[in-house]
Amino acid sequence: MQKVLIITYYWPPAGGPGVQRWLKFVKYFRYFDIEPIVYIPENPTYPMTDTTFVKDVPEDITIIKGAIFEPYAFANVFSKNKTKTISSGIISTKKQSVTEKVLLWIRGNLFIPDARKFWVKPSVTYLSEYIKENHIETIVTTGPPHSVHLIGMQLKEKIGVKWLADFRDPWTSIGYHSKLKLTKKSQRKHKELESKVLNNASAISVTSFTTKDEFSKLTNTPIAVITNGYDNEKVKNNKLNNNFTLSHIGSLLSGRNPKVLWSILKELCDTIDSFKNDLEITLAGKVSEEIIDSITKFGLTDNVVLKGYLSHEDALILQRESQVLLLLEINSEETKGIIPGKLFEYIISKRPILAIGPEEWDAARIISNTKTGNTFNYSEEQKIKETILAYYNLYKKNELFVTSTNVEVYSRKNLTQHMASLLKSL
Hints:
By secondary structure, this protein is an alpha/beta fold. It has helices spanning 20-28, 71-87, 98-109, 120-133, 147-159, 184-200, 209-216, 259-271, 273-278, 289-297, 312-321, 342-346, 362-370, 381-396, 412-425, and strands at residues 2-7, 34-41, 62-66, 138-143, 162-167, 203-206, 223-225, 244-249, 279-284, 304-308, 324-328, 353-357, 373-377.
């Protein structure tokens, strides 16, 4: 088998979508003659944890750890809630407190490319010897945090290993990057580091078509699109919710506030007698204050259920119990390449997806190809309203279902085969 060292910050018991991509690749690599070795931080500060992911870690896998200095742990002394929020990517668009402004400035300008930069030097020192002693020829770095890619770049320069740089999200073009209060010097430094990584990697993998297009303008390094996917997990066979449930699973950032949706739901509640009684808006995950304020403003508070963070298993159950699944993305050119990891679990839930996002959104292509729902731009208010009404009428007749197609291409095992082929070709 080919040995591959995977360098990742997020690993169980970390929660959220960031951990799942390489956890699932590791789970299936041996089917395709790849022997994975995983390098993770010894003492990380994760914004959320989910112990249910631990079951997917192969029992006899080699996992090595390196100590990391975590500025987020130090910042918690001053403002634990604000630190966790910024670490999770939720940046308020309202008037920010002095503490939040200071934390954002520090995060953006003193920790380049990110607050995990202090893991780079000790990791390169330790892994240089480990790689030589264990005859490893291929390494993978996955970001964010994009400082992990600096480990890969320095290892390639130092000992000549083949290096795949995997981008779960873009670097300088991601939405929150512009909110970090960067100076011109800091912005230039981010761009320089991004360019060095892209041009020194042996190959690059990305999760969306748009990210590939963006990176192709910055480098001639080969780029492969390997999306996230779904796993064939056993889920308790619960019945559909009796209410007309519109469920969103995952963080709802301030920029994703779908005011057009709240407006439509308010109008339908006011004009259809049964709609207000049947409607239930379920939000599972971190929800920003701006979202809550909007829901209150549109008079939908009584129809909302806030679940908080759910374990992965509970999230899968909620998806299958819901009548409609909401997929919401920021209305921006910067976000058209963002394909939320939950989309792939949505598409195998057998529930219709109502997606609202930017024009030419990559997620829309997948929803269309799999026939699992409908995608709209924020300006298409009438079409969104008509679709919700159509869903509601089918719900009232117990006929609200989807017949999907072309879904198997997104199974984790099939995607792992693609990734294994890429690694063997380096």
